[in-house]
Known about the structure:
This protein is mainly alpha-helical.
Amino acid sequence: MPSEITPEQQAENRKRAEACFARGKTLADIGSYEQAIDTCIQGLHFDPDNVEGHQHLRRIALERKAHGGRDIAWAERMKLPAVKQQMGPMLAAEKLLAYTPDDRSRMTDFFKAAEATGAAATAAWVRLILKTGRG
C-alpha cells in the first residue's frame, strides 16, 4: 500500500476488503462464481497485498473450474483495459487468471504484475505456486 495511507485508512481498507471476501464466499457458495470473482477483486482493490484474499479468490476460481467454468467471455475480456486502468495491472491479470486458474502463462503475468506493483507478499505466494504447482 502507498506510504501516504494512514494506519486508520489502512484498517478501514482492510475492513472493506474483508467484507468483499465474505460476500465473495457467499456468492461462490450459491454458485455465482463470476460475481464472486468480481467481488473478491473489488476487495483486493482495497487491500492489494492481502495474500489471504488472493488465496480466497484462487479457491473460488478452482471451484468454478471444477464445476465446468470456462475461460472469460469475450465481452468481459473487452472490459479488461478499464479494469486495468481502474484497479491496476495486477488485479487485471488476476481476473484473467481467475477464469483459467491452471494457466501458467497467466500465472506468470500475475506474478510479474505483483512484483511490479510492489506487492511483495503476493509475489512470493505466486512464485511458490509457480515453483511447486500447489496453492
